[in-house]
Amino acid sequence: MxxxxxxxxxTQLKVKQQFPLTIKRIGINGEGVGYFKRKVVFVPGALPGxxxxxxxxxxxPKFTEGRVKKIRKKSPLRATPPCLVYETCxxxxxxxxxxxxxxxxKRDILIQALERHTKLDLETLDIRKTIGMDNPWHYRNxxxxxxxxxxxxVIAGLYSLDSHKLQDIDECIVQxxxxxxxxxxxxxxxxxxxxxxxxxxxxKGLLKTIVTxxxxxxxxxxxxxxxxxxxxxxxxxxIAEIEKRLPEVVSIAQNVNPKKTSVIFGDDTYHLSGxxxxxxxxxxFTYELSARAFFQLNPIQTTKLYxxxxxxxxxxxxxxxxxxYCGVGTIGLWLADQAKEIRGMDVxxxxxxxxxxxxxxxxxxxxxxxxxxxxKLLPEWKKEGWKPDVVLVDPPRTGCDRKFLxxxxxxxxxxxxxxxxxxxxxxxxxxxxxAEYKVEYLQPVDMFPQTAHVECVTQLVLx
Length: 463
Description:
The protein is of the alpha/beta class. The protein has 3 domains: 2-78, CATH 2.40.50.140; 142-290, CATH 2.40.50.1070; 299-462, Rossmann fold. The protein contains 11 helices and 21 strands. The chain has helices spanning 2-6, 86-89, 99-117, 177-193, 235-245, 299-313, 330-335, 349-361, 374-383, 402-411, 423-432; strands at residues 18-26, 32-36, 39-43, 51-59, 63-73, 142-150, 153-159, 166-168, 207-214, 221-227, 249-256, 268-274, 277-282, 285-290, 320-324, 341-346, 367-371, 390-393, 415-420, 437-445, 455-462. It has a 7-stranded mixed β-sheet, with helices on one face. Helix 3 (99-117) packs parallel to helix 11 (423-432), helix 4 packs antiparallel against helix 5 (235-245) and helix 9 (374-383) packs parallel to helix 10 (402-411). The radius of gyration is 24 Å and the shape is globular.
């Protein structure tokens, strides 16, 4: 070790070189972050405050990746991961930290994004404590497990991080127990019926993915089998066995995806048996979830997230509200009882059709939905004399379109409520609006415990 540590006098680290490191914080991907000779080092599995010996695994011009060889000083936040495949699976990044430590780390991940992408005075900014879960396990309502074969047996799970090795998973402890049970039993059925599974290496075979979703409040389970072609051998027997062994499965569908892609679903979906959708309830709202319908993966935290958005909107019953990127209208309808009028828009017609149906189902007659982009519709409405008091947005991870933000600057709603699933794009977007809008507060919400993901509700107020 002494000989290896002497090499630290070199100006450039080398792969397999070992060196001491003090970890300063958790990075955006859940890794420990430290500095060696003024160069950032990312170390998965290391925690803030720990003193570790690191071995360099990859050396880049501006940063180094490494792995822990020895922990010299252990963090009081360190926990023993309860998952048996935690280090090989790659699905979770933070099981080695106490849950209280995870909530602190996620707030800091948000702060890091603001430091990197804005010039805001973070000392005076109201960045609130992360809202967590009472039980941060078994919270996911949907699993998408890739299928393979090992030693003549069907396996299903996730690919290890940076690897083509499929990790067989029977019991994922962040998944609802129903999805675990159903997926495991379907593996057995496929094995018993000798249905061919997809071989990723040789690009041949039939069954690629088992998608399982459960309604937390209803207990209804939906299964989608993703295949490379429409024809399934012994299909009727397969359906009969699923229905016989798994009575909780009330909806079975098939999706065909012949493409060589990491995207799970293909274009064509076929209903095989049972209902075409399952039901889920959030408070007084009931949602119909078809095989391809988007729905939040953590229903328990979704209620908290939407209530935070409602709180940030601060409605009194007199406001006109725009729900941009509205999808099926979920968040806008959540706020509707306190708004004078809701107008939602999206470029996806099917989503707008669902939003209209949801508004009708929930008896919200003052919510109206339009196919189109906000940057096109909002200026048109302004010319007609209709201007929103509040604009609510829940964009994809890529953040808001720059044209949309320019439209916000033009239309100038009194409040802009930004629900984000990516701190980096959130920070860039609010920095772009800083001349017109003051950041009143940021409220992080933990939608995905045990992972490095963090959602945030930000209230921006017109200056």
